[in-house]
Amino acid sequence: MKYGVVIFPSKKLQDIVNSYRKRYDPNYSLIPPHITLKYPFESNEEGIKTVAKYLEEVSTNTLPLSLKVLKVSSFKPVSNVIYLKVDPTAELISLQQKMQTDLMVTGTDFAFVPHITLGQNLTDDEHSDIFGQLSMLDLRHEEIIDRFHLLYQLDNGSWTVYETFRLGKES
Length: 171
Hints:
The protein has four helices and eight strands. A hairpin with a 7-residue loop joins strand 3 and strand 4 (82-86). The chain has a single domain (2-165), classed as Cyclic phosphodiesterase (Cyclic Phosphodiesterase, Chain: A). The strands form two sheets. The chain has a four-stranded antiparallel beta sheet, with helices on one face. A four-stranded antiparallel beta sheet has the order 5-4-3-6. The protein is 29% helix and 32% strand. It is α+β, with helices and mostly antiparallel strands and 171 residues long.
């Protein structure tokens, strides 16, 4: 089964992002707006229990962090993906690096560019037009993130939460 680790932003930010995703992202119905901490990896039921135990340790030893959305950006010319650029703070990078363990091998290596996708699989003309429009908007946003989620993929391609991990020690 496929698993992944993500941060879901607040409902307020998700609503803003979804107002664009429903028009520009064919994966809109498969997963809510998110920041990927660990790209999809395969695991069995026994292996995912070990992963969940590891993620619990990570969450306990990681304080809540600030999430800052800076602007609309794009991965062009690599791909026609338009996204909200997230400030790559030391805390966010540290959390993402803790996900790079032999317990969760993906087979793909991407540089970590924290972002929330607004649109993807766009033609060159669509990308140019939509990016031009969205880049003029002020979509800056800041919030505190206090949890991350281990997800699994269903047979229909959608993702659902397997377990949620709260950041910081319980008081």
